[in-house]
Write a structure and sequence with these properties.
alpha/beta; 2 domains; 24 helices; about 50% helix; Rossmann fold; TIM Barrel; about 650 residues; 14 strands
Length: about 650
């Protein structure tokens, strides 16, 4: 029995929901919606995200939309003022991962340790712990409008604090949570949470304050077209406006092929309007579309490549009618960016924004028009099928569509998607499907897609498969439009031995880290090399690793961590293994192991002191790690 419906939450029910939500931390008492409305009305229009974005669109300019969010208020204010100096007036405001998962005691400790040590112990701003009064100081400290980020577990509480503090936008992307932030939540739970924020936004709208929501959709996490992403953005928007919200901001991703990127941006608003009108929402504001640098492709560690990456995004933004654009900083691959890298990155992007836009250069080709047509056909087919499956109720249809694989995407963190689709790049770097799963793709879309895949296969003399998809996933970070798999270096595999025994390895991403792609790739390659793999996926506390290792008599655990807070997550892990009777288990960890620019040698010392046998930096070769693993298992008599 599906528990969600596309209907507005009634006042009495919502009042009880809010009371429960705000009782979870003392700062909830600071929220008074009537007082907050008056506070909003006292602020200038430049603080309202909808009005600020619409102004950029009207003037034909592009607003920078960078990430910001550090734990200590004084540092946050310093960062925001620095961003103001390079012209930033729109602020996506990153909350830390503990806050996003309502682990508020841990967030408090991280905040206190950040203040005490002068080092960032959190990967964002703990907005709930800071509360309304403190966060208003941040909002008032600079020019611009704020758009905080959270994930499902804390979304409602973060929204309450953020809006009461004077922030005027927030994503409400339940498919974004399924893609990358919530491992075990059902689609229904995600929709219920999204309906809460939509209803909260409508309360402000009823009192004269417009708060917008930007839609992120089902981030593909891999090399596939953006058809499902755009369709799910529209579904997210329909759920939010169904609760009474009035302002929607689509967020379009760039994937590296000019024709495909431009086409998807051009067709976006048309598709949103088509389905708003189809379902009777005729008064919705779309103040502008925001561009977003790639989806979740790896970011270059080489600074020169990193500048190239961000400036490609800036160029596409400048050649389309985007009102704002998010570019990652040049040191994105090394962890949480420094203030200096923010400044350098945005000066570079602004140079391109200004120089190109002032030329009024319009790009139009037959290839772009064809990509527009194919995108519109594919997105419409998906949405029409979801509406049909729900008998007109898009919430019911969304639940059924995920169950059936009608909505699907690879490498999602959530355990419920089918994960039957796979993609690769064509000869010119555009993303195509090589496996459709159960997606309701029209014949014309499949024919076009398949022809592009066969063209590359014929030209390069290869078969596009999982290995090709993985190579294509990394290609932008390596300065190429598609992956090179014609001359794969097999030297890393030399020394990997065939095994008489089958060692059991527990894999996963530790703590509340939601980065799942790396651990899924590691798990697949380990299986191919003959290991028995217990794959926990992302967001796995160390206790879950230990329990799985106990129950399966595992020989090793391979932990990944990419959000910078791994040191806090693994404290005492070796001692806990010993207490559990598995003290001799091989322990590996790798990834981005701290917040900010890192010295890997120091990180290696830190994690070896905690009890890890080996520690790996980002972009380490899994085949080399497998050779290390075989050697360590032999040394312990396990192989």
């Amino acid at each position: 029995m599906i528990s969600v419906k596309q209907e507005r939450i009634d006042d009495k029910t919502f009042a009880k929901m809010r009371e429960k939500e705000l009782s979870q931390w003392p700062t909830g008492k600071e929220v008074d919606i009537d007082e907050a409305v008056e506070y909003h009305k006292s602020l200038p229009d430049s603080k309202n995200f909808t009005k600020a974005l619409a102004k950029y669109k009207e003037e034909g300019k592009i607003g920078l939309f960078p990430r910001s969010g550090v734990p200590v208020v004084e540092e946050e204010i310093k960062l925001l003022k620095g961003l103001n100096e390079v012209g930033v007036r729109l602020f996506p405001f990153t909350t830390d991962s503990y806050t996003r998962n309502l682990q508020l005691e841990k967030a408090q400790k991280g905040l206190e340790d950040s203040i005490k040590t002068g080092q960032r112990k959190l990967n964002g701003y703990p907005i709930i712990n800071h509360g309304v009064k403190t966060t208003r100081k941040v909002v008032e400290s600079c020019e611009g409008a704020f758009d905080p980020r959270s994930s499902r577990v804390a979304n409602s509480f973060v929204g309450e604090i953020a809006f009461a503090s004077g922030m005027t936008a927030m994503p409400n992307s339940f498919f974004g949570w399924i893609a990358g932030y919530d491992k075990k939540a059902t689609v229904e739970e995600c929709i219920h949470t999204a309906q809460y924020l939509g209803r909260l936004i409508s309360m402000y709208a009823e009192k004269g304050v417009i708060i917008s929501t930007d839609t992120h959709g089902w981030l593909p996490n891999g090399v596939i077209p953006m058809y499902v992403n755009i369709a799910t953005q529209i579904l997210e928007a329909l759920v939010t406006v169904g609760q009474g919200a009035k302002s929607i901001v689509p967020l379009m991703n760039f994937q590296g092929n000019i024709a495909q990127d431009v086409a998807e941006i051009r067709v976006c608003e048309k598709l949103f309007r088509k389905y708003f009108e189809k379902l009777g929402f005729n008064d919705i504001i779309i103040p502008g579309i925001i561009g977003n640098q790639s989806s979740l492709f790896p970011f270059p560690q080489d600074i020169g490549y990193a500048y190239g990456y961000i400036n490609y995004v800036a160029m596409i933004a400048a050649m389309t009618d985007l009102a704002a654009c998010s570019v990652k900083t040049i040191d994105e691959a090394t962890g949480v960016p420094s203030i200096e890298s923010h400044m350098q990155t945005y000066r570079s992007a602004n140079w391109i924004f200004n120089v190109i836009r002032q030329q009024n250069f319009e790009i139009d080709t037959e290839e772009i028009r064809q990509e527009e047509r194919i995108t519109e056909l594919a997105v419409s087919a998906i949405l029409d099928k979801v509406i049909e499956m729900g008998d007109g109720d898009i919430t019911v249809g969304s639940v059924k569509a995920v169950e059936a694989g009608v909505l699907d995407s690879p490498f999602s963190i959530n355990i419920y998607p089918k994960d039957l689709v796979m993609g690769a790049r064509d000869l010119h770097g555009a993303c195509r499907y090589i496996e459709y799963g159960n997606l309701p793709m029209p014949d014309e879309v499949k024919k076009y897609n398949d022809e592009k895949i066969r063209e590359r296969e014929k030209t390069e003399g290869i078969k596009l498969d999982f290995n090709a998809s993985t190579a294509d996933f990394w290609c932008l970070a390596k300065g190429a439009a598609r992956g090179d798999i014609s001359n794969v270096d097999e030297s890393a595999a030399e020394g990997i031995e065939k095994m008489d025994k089958t060692p059991t390895i527990v894999t996963g991403t530790v703590g509340v880290d939601s980065h799942v792609i790396g651990t899924k790739i590691i798990s697949k390659i380990l299986k191919e090399k003959g290991f028995n793999v217990i794959a926990l996926g992302a967001q796995s506390p160390q206790e879950e690793f230990i329990k799985a290792a106990q129950e399966t008599d595992a020989d090793a655990m391979i932990l990944s961590s990419l959000y910078g807070m791994g040191e806090m997550d693994v404290q005492g892990i070796r001692e806990k293994c010993e207490e559990a009777g598995i003290g001799d288990i091989v322990l590996y960890i790798g990834g981005i192991l701290g917040v900010g620019t890192r010295d890997f040698k120091e990180d290696e010392k830190t994690f070896k002191k905690i009890g890890f046998d080996r520690v790996y930096p980002p972009e380490s070769d899994i085949l080399i790690a497998i050779k290390d693993l075989q050697a360590d298992l032999k040394a312990k008599g396990k192989l």
